[in-house]
Design a protein that fits this description.
about 250 residues; alpha+beta; Aminopeptidase; 2 domains; 9-stranded mixed β-sheet; 6 helices; disordered N terminus
């Protein structure tokens, strides 16, 4: 077997590469409730709703797309809100560490800032007080610190992840973070594009905008002119998007 060169960050566009990303990188890294189906993943890429970049280990003498996808980042672009959500960022088991995640995130955010000029780039992270670390899905505290080292700040909203389809399980107690903003030195972001993004994201995921207490609380937190940004050491000031009863799942019909 030829020696393997260093990781290469490339756009992932072929069905083969995207399927490899999903099966070998994303599926082992995320609980089922946080993953769309493979069919939906491929369809959203084909429709231009998602864009992925990956770290590909390429044998010497070969060129991308040859090689094995060992890490990937998936972005979802809201043109109306001019907000980009990093839906997934993961490294294949056995390949974590060594700066792969940092290189991938840096390359992806730089490319999206250049090509799309978003108002903000967002990421979702499990709240470490409500989600335990696991060997399979990683350590929320470490993930939070990773994003913080790359400029991430926490939005002061009671965030939870919508269900992937009507009736699907939601993920409570997540943190919504900015990974890049138009004004890197600002202590808050404009609420209007964030509110537009959230409405669009929840409607696209769940099929409707639910009229339940957690959804209302999340949107109410973006009803003013600005939304405060907080450091990862200020989580006691971040409202938590807890769910119970019927709000544990996306509405049906």
């Amino acid at each position: 077997m030829p020696p393997v060169s260093g990781p290469v960050v490339v756009p992932l566009r072929s069905v083969e590469q995207l399927t490899q990303l999903y099966r070998d990188v994303l599926s082992p890294s995320f609980p089922p409730a946080e993953l769309v189906s493979l069919d939906a993943f491929l369809a959203d890429h084909a429709a231009g709703h998602l864009e992925s970049l990956g770290v590909v280990e390429v044998p010497d003498g070969a060129a991308p797309p040859a090689g094995r996808v060992v890490a990937g980042v998936v972005g979802s672009w809201s043109a109306e809100a001019r907000v980009l959500l990093v839906q997934y960022l993961a490294i294949a088991p056995g390949r974590r560490g060594g700066g792969i995640g940092a290189a991938l995130l840096g390359a992806a955010v730089a490319a999206w800032l250049k090509d799309l000029r978003p108002v903000m780039v967002l990421g979702e992270v499990e709240h470490p007080r409500f989600h335990a670390a696991s060997e399979a899905h990683g350590d929320p505290e470490a993930r939070l610190r990773f994003y913080a080292r790359h400029g991430g700040r926490v939005l002061a909203v009671p965030y939870f992840q919508p269900g992937n389809e009507p009736g699907a399980e939601r993920v409570p107690a997540l943190l919504l973070m900015t990974l890049a903003t138009e004004d890197p030195g600002a202590t808050s972001v404009p609420a209007a594009p964030l509110r537009t993004f959230l409405r669009e994201y929840f409607e696209a995921s769940e099929g409707t905008l639910a009229d339940d207490a957690p959804t209302r609380a999340l949107l109410d937190a973006t009803s003013g002119d600005r939304v405060e940004l907080l450091g990862v050491d200020e989580l006691d000031r971040v409202p938590v998007g807890l769910l119970d009863g019927s709000s544990l799942r996306a509405p049906v019909g």
